[in-house]
Amino acid sequence: MKELQVKFVRHGQTFYNLMHKMQGWSDAPLTDRGIADLRKTAQGLKQIHFDAFYSSDLKRAMDTAEIIMQANTASDPDLQLQTDANFREVGFGIFEGIDDQIVGRKVGHPFGFDNFNDFIKQAGINQVRDATKIADSSGFAESSTDVYHRMAAGFQDLLEQNATGSTILVVTHGGFIRMLGEKYATKAQLAATNLPENGSVTTVLLTDQHVRVLDFARHNDQLDTDQAV
Known about the structure:
By secondary structure, this protein is of the alpha/beta class.
């Protein structure tokens, strides 16, 4: 049985995050705060030996990965960043770049909700993703099934491309990690957050038979207390 330990990092804060705009397949640069926070994440991960570095193919994730790689002192300095579109953020279609409160009201209203937070708490992230796809007139928004399909493809990429026992870093996105947690984390692990914070780290044991979340959305300030997790 092949087994990998994978650390999924949410990218740093971007201008869209700061302005509370929907940010899926669209992109925005990291803010100064985002870069500063990522340096904390990088410090917490710098002594971990990674056998490979991956990110989604969106620039905010690639820039985040580069900051972490530059700080790392335990891995082969010749390792190159690999990108995989399977790890990109959930696609929001026509709602990309729009204020998230406006989108929350439009998507949630038919179900009796006027914001994403209440909708997620009461109905779950999968129904919210499905409702967003229904409300999107462009046809580009992703349903929960769409996201889980490419998530599985991304996991398969990691298993095929890396040797058993490897430790892998993957920089991805908040919505992607939240859905990973919905499918594989325990209720206790999910209880602390609706959306993983920028720069947080989620550790997963990935095998060709199962996926197990070891640690969900650990804040970057906590990393140096237990670097082995």
